[in-house]
């Protein structure tokens, strides 16, 4: 019995758990780590999966997870390149002189308590090394405001985060507060010095150089945010894709360092079945 490419595209896709139980029986090589660069795209199935084949094996790619992964690694690449640029700035240069840092026009207002504003002001130099810069008057407690509240103005931020800071999602102001306070707390804890030194050491190791060790020199709020952005911006289930669009998704996934997992660690690829049934299975059904 032969399964044709047309049959494969139209057939229902087994759940991954079912496929995992069947793979050893079908002898698909003892591993489910798919070489994405070798895949030939067949087409979309159920507006959820991109069906491919390689080496006589049918492979399903979760279209949301694949696009999410490619977006995430793009963000990671941009953030790591930004950190390198920031580390090369002279003391008098603004953060916006580094590639990967954007000027916010207009500046994003951040309303804080005076206590929190003072804490942020104390780590202004460290914030600049993260691509975050405030208007000069924000470094003291006399920032604009009344009573126990004041308003700081964020004038620069990592380009990757700009959509969240100036977006229309109704969360922009809250995110600016979250970003500033989390980054200030992280800097005040002394984490930046130790993690940046460790990241430089990892970057010198050829085996780790492609795993974005510089991300260790960023507060968790930044990495968590780009994970969320990668997910929200990715192709969704029930979104129809043409054959050329399917190929574009797979091509982007093939360029990834870790194409087998989405931004949250779930699998993006799974070998499903051999396109030619093994003789032993064919005989058992006669």
From TrEMBL:
Q: Which GO terms describe its molecular function?
A: ATP binding; ATP hydrolysis activity; ATP-dependent DNA damage sensor activity
Query: Which cellular component terms (GO) are annotated to the entry?
Result: mismatch repair complex
Pfam family name, one: MutL_C
GO biological process, any: mismatch repair
Organism domain of life: Eukaryota
Signal peptide location in the record?
Answer: none
Q: Which residues form the MutL C-terminal dimerisation domain?
A: 41-241
SUPFAM superfamilies in the record, alphabetically?
A: DNA mismatch repair protein MutL
Annotated PANTHER family = DNA MISMATCH REPAIR PROTEIN MLH, PMS, MUTL, DNA MISMATCH REPAIR PROTEIN MLH3
Protein name as it appears in the record: DNA mismatch repair protein
